Amino acid sequence: MSDVTEALPPCPECSGVYTYEMGALLICPECGHEWSPASAEPAGDGEGAAGGIRDAVGNVLADGDTVTVIKTLKVKGSPSGIKAGTKVRNIRLVDGVDGHDIDCKVDGFGPMQLKSSVVKKA
Question: Protein YjdM C-terminal domain location, by residue (predicted)?
């Protein structure tokens, strides 16, 4: 097991050494911080403006951002939908299916994926 912990970087939040991989993310079990290995390498230099995922207004999004839904969205199995103006906290950027590039939890609906074209950075 020491080979595995030496191969993964420590947590950028609490410097914990017990990080583990879950899909494309690294997770710290001590503080619960989640980050992508690619974002940990530049050490906070930010994403390139040309390569980042952008919201409906053109702002570059990053993991952990808070966004606001800009139009009412229909949700299968729900009589109401996600209303315009709903805030979604702690988003994760993913290579989703069909343009759904934001993985998040919406209050009252649970985990789901959204398109960056229907949100703006809060």
Answer: 53-122
Cβ(93)–Cβ(102) under 8 Å? Answer: yes
The pLDDT > 90 percentage for the chain reads: 41
In the three-class reduction of DSSP (H, G, I as helix; E, B as strand; rest coil), residue 9 is classed as: coil
Q: Per residue in 68-111, pLDDT tens? A: 999 999 988 888 899 999 999 999 999 878 889 999 999 988 99
Residues contacting 87, CB < 8 A, separation 6+: 66, 67, 68, 122
Q: How far apart are CA 19 and CA 26, in angstroms?
A: 6
C-alpha dist (Å) from residue 35 to 80, 98, 117, 118: 33, 23, 23, 24
Residue bearing tokens 């994926």:
113
Give the DSSP per-residue string, 45-57. ----TTTS-B-TT
CA 41 from chain centre, in angstroms, equals: 17
Contact criterion met (CB below 8 Å) for 88 and 106: yes
